[in-house]
Each structure stands twice: as structure tokens, then as C-alpha cells.
Amino acid sequence: MAAEEARRQSSLTVDTHVSLLELKPHIISLCKDLFKKWSELNQSRFSVERISGGMTNLLLKVSVEDETGNAESFAVRLYGPNTEYVINRERELLVRQI
């Protein structure tokens, strides 16, 4: 993934309280919004698995198969509602870059 794409942000929101089946199309839309190279891919090329869920977030594994059949997997973290009152997310991201 290009660094500039990895830093893109999306205005889309996702309700983390729904089932994975209901969540999947929203996660795919989010990935397509964040990564231009996937924007035209059919939803069937994406798979979404739940890795874990905690008190403050939900962690998912998203796999994408491109036109050539190569697959790429990555983690998607969805923050829970109102967690910004407990955790400083900007500081958390800065710490991860060190």
C-alpha cells in the first residue's frame, strides 16, 4: 500500500453493534473509500473476519483479492462510541509511529 493512501481518512461511519453479516458491506464501503485502487472491485473480492472485540474497539481482518488473484490482508480497528473520553486517539497514533 502506498503511504499516502494509508494516511487517507474517510467520513463514513460504521455501527459496531451490528452483526458481522450486517457490518461487512459497511466495512467494504469504507475500504473502497479509503483505498482508491479497490474502489471499483466487486464486493465478492473482499472477506471480513472478526479478530477480537474489547471494551473500546472492534478488530477485524479484511482480505482483498485483486484482478490478478493476489490477496492482501490487513487489520481494521473500529473505535467504540465515546471512547475519546477515555483514550486520546491522536496520542495513541503518535505512539504507534515510534
From TrEMBL:
One of its GO terms (molecular function) is ethanolamine kinase activity. Pathway: Phospholipid metabolism; phosphatidylethanolamine biosynthesis; phosphatidylethanolamine from ethanolamine: step 1/3. It comes from the Eukaryota. It is an enzyme of class 2 (transferase). Its EC number is 2.7.1.82. Pfam families: Choline_kinase (PF01633). GO terms for biological process: phosphatidylethanolamine biosynthetic process. One of its GO terms (cellular component) is cytoplasm. This is ethanolamine kinase.
